Amino acid sequence: MLYRHLTTAARSAARTQAVPSFRNFATAAPVSGTRNHKVVVVGGGSGGVNISHQLLQSGKFAAEDIAVIDPAEFHHYQPGWTLVGGGLKTKEELRRPMKSLFDPKLKFYNDSVATFAPESNFVTLSNGDKIGYDQLIVAPGLTVSPANIKGLPEALANRDAPVSSIYTYDSVQKVFPSIQKMDKGNAIFTQPAGVIKCAGAPQKIMWLALDYWKRAGLYNPSNPSGSAINISFATGLPVMFGVPKYNAALTKLQQERGVNPLFQHDLIEINGNNAIFARPDGAETVTKHFDFLHVAPKMGSPAFIKNSPIANEAGFVKVDDATLRHKKFANIWSAGDASSCPTSKTAAAVIAQSPIVVRNLLNAMEGKQPDAVYDGYTSCPLLTEYGKVLLAEFKYGPEPKETFGNWFGIDQAEPRRSFYYLKKDFFPWVYYTHMVKGNWAGPKGWIN
Ligand code: FAD
Ligand code: UQ1
């Protein structure tokens, strides 16, 4: 059942929340000279592919009533790129041709959206075509910008430079060979200040590399200073992780395993084998020599969103945190990394948001108020070594909201083997067999 997540309490919370006084565009007149659809979805990533199929399954749409726009040739299972970095999967097995994912009843435009005209209900593609809509869903993800760190694009492209990143398709295959090649000196793993996809991933790859070097006899957590390799975690943040419960567990690991913490260190430049860090706390820049560097680049909302009338001051699509409806334009919705929801940006979050957008949008088309509420659910399966995962699950607050803690009374801050197999095998499988078809609701299980 698609909407079994909706509790009575949630329905009543939705009814009582303030309803903005915007015009209802559901009956907007078609824009002449354009292709028109009842629903247009911007982005065919985790959010777009899931939501478009859930809408189709409602049975309320005919062929080509729903259109999806995405310029990419491939859809990627990005959460698997950490596993590629750890030598556990290949990047090719984690991608699918974008076109192959869409039901033939969905109209697919293999192009990018350039601009929005929310007052007139159309978007313009990069080829100049206008696509009109009654309802618009905006899910173009985050842009990863290696060029925002001086010297990073060149270092990633240079086969001889010991600099790699799990964060782009072009660089991810360099990570595991770099871990294997490293035999002595300083290894630094970075996380930028600011919003990124999956805030735990920069340290997941560190924990895997640490385990690899430990097994290879190059790192002894009980005697870090006597080890061939010295490991630092340089993060723009003041803590290991933003949720207190999981931060406590991860800080304990960092201390027990002898990882040198460089808090409030935000990588801004790579110069040869030197990494230069700005200090968000206002201190002087710091330069560190490295023999191995894993970088999480800076990320942000895509420029075409930032520069549009649908963005908030920070550049994200300005939606209500609970209903996911745009705060100004009642026929615009957003899910995923590009939305303004103040939660950690993950595919797990998108999976929880999708049924909320779908129900609220269908209600809006019938002139009803949105009554489904997103509670901020997100999750970060933190690989802490080969064979173990700490399954952080939390909601707005941030407060833990643990699926297996609830069912089995276990503490998910403890790394477990069963969670490792969820992360490595089950999630990639369920994503491509069910989630992309709109049939998987994460902790709520299968839909239909
Ligand atoms: P995306 O899936 O990124 O899709 C956005 C789509 O929009 C893309 O297909 C893109 O081509 C398209 N697009 C961009 N610009 C335009 C335009 N102008 N017009 C039309 N379309 C456009 N999540 C987890 O849940 N668990 C994890 O363990 C995890 N680990 C991660 C590790 C790494 C290294 C990375 C990179 C990500 C990880 N994530 C994880 C995060 C997860 O991949 C994202 O949060 C999720 O994919 C967001 O979905 P989305 O639909 O918002 O964006
Ligand atoms: C999930 O459904 C999912 O996608 C298939 C993930 O991978 C991207 C996840 O990391 C998580 C946590 C979920 C949520 C599902 C459960 C059963 C906790």
From TrEMBL:
<dbReference type="GO" id="GO:0071949">
    <property type="term" value="F:FAD binding"/>
</dbReference>
<dbReference type="GO" id="GO:0070224">
    <property type="term" value="F:sulfide:quinone oxidoreductase activity"/>
</dbReference>
<feature type="domain" description="FAD/NAD(P)-binding">
    <location>
        <begin position="38"/>
        <end position="159"/>
    </location>
</feature>
<dbReference type="Pfam" id="PF07992">
    <property type="entry name" value="Pyr_redox_2"/>
</dbReference>
<dbReference type="InterPro" id="IPR015904">
    <property type="entry name" value="Sulphide_quinone_reductase"/>
</dbReference>
<protein>
    <recommendedName>
        <fullName>FAD/NAD(P)-binding domain-containing protein</fullName>
    </recommendedName>
</protein>
<dbReference type="GO" id="GO:0070221">
    <property type="term" value="P:sulfide oxidation, using sulfide:quinone oxidoreductase"/>
</dbReference>
<dbReference type="InterPro" id="IPR036188">
    <property type="entry name" value="FAD/NAD-bd_sf"/>
</dbReference>
<dbReference type="InterPro" id="IPR023753">
    <property type="entry name" value="FAD/NAD-binding_dom"/>
</dbReference>
<dbReference type="GO" id="GO:0005739">
    <property type="term" value="C:mitochondrion"/>
</dbReference>
